[in-house]
C-alpha cells in the first residue's frame, strides 16, 4: 500500500473547510446585494461588488465610496442572505487585501431572520492589509450594535441561526476612527474555521 504524505490533523483540516464563498473557484457575486447609506440627504454612500477575472486569478472586489454626514455617519457595503449554523466554528476567515483611502471594515452577522434598524447587528471591526493575508474574525468577539451604537441590551447572537452576513466600510459616526473617500476590498474567499 502506498504511503500517504498527509497526517490526521491536515486530513481533518482539509475535509472540515467550510467556504461561505470561494471566489477563486466558483463563488459568485450575484448572491450578494448592496447595503449602503442612500437614505440621508447629507450622507449618500455607494458600493459595488464585482467578480474580477484574468488569465492568472479570479476574485471578488468590493468598491466603496463613503460620503459621510458631518458627524461621520456613512456606510457602504454588501450583504448575503444565508441559512448557516456556525455554532461549531471558532472564526470567520477572509483572504483579503485593501486599496484606497481607508482600510477599516466591519463584518456583520444577523440571526433569526431579523432585519431593519430596530434589530441589532452583530459586528466585528477589522483592518485589511495592503498585501493578501488571511484575516481571522473570532465569532465570540462579535458585538451587538444598533443604529451604529454599541447595544448591550440585546439577546446574545444565536450562532445556530445566522440568516444574513455582510461586509461594510464605515464612516465612523460613533467610533474614534472616521473614514471617507473611495476604497477597494479584494476578496479571494470567506470561510468558517
Report what the structure shows.
The chain has 193 residues and is mostly beta strands. The chain has a single domain, classed as Jelly Rolls, CATH 2.60.120. 5% of the residues lie in helices and 49% in strands. It has one helix at 8-16; strands at 18-22, 33-36, 46-53, 58-66, 75-84, 91-100, 104-111, 121-127, 133-138, 143-146, 149-150, 162-170, 181-192. It has a seven-stranded antiparallel β-sheet with strand order 2-5-12-7-8-10-11, with no helix packed on it. Strand 3 (46-53) and strand 4 (58-66) form a beta hairpin. The radius of gyration is 18 Å and the shape is globular. The two termini are 32 Å apart. 32% of the residues are buried.
* CATH fold-level topology: Jelly Rolls
Largest sheet: 7 strands, antiparallel
Number of strands: 13
General form: globular
Relative strand content: over 45%
Give a brief description.
The protein is mostly beta strands and 193 residues long. It has one helix and 13 strands; from the N terminus they run αβββββββββββββ.
List the main descriptive attributes of the protein structure presented here.
single chain, 13 strands, unfolded protein binding, NADH:ubiquinone oxidoreductase intermediate-associated protein 30 domain-containing protein, NADH-UbQ_OxRdtase-assoc_prot30, NDUFAF1, 193 residues, mainly beta, disordered N terminus, Jelly Rolls, seven-stranded antiparallel beta sheet, six-stranded antiparallel beta sheet
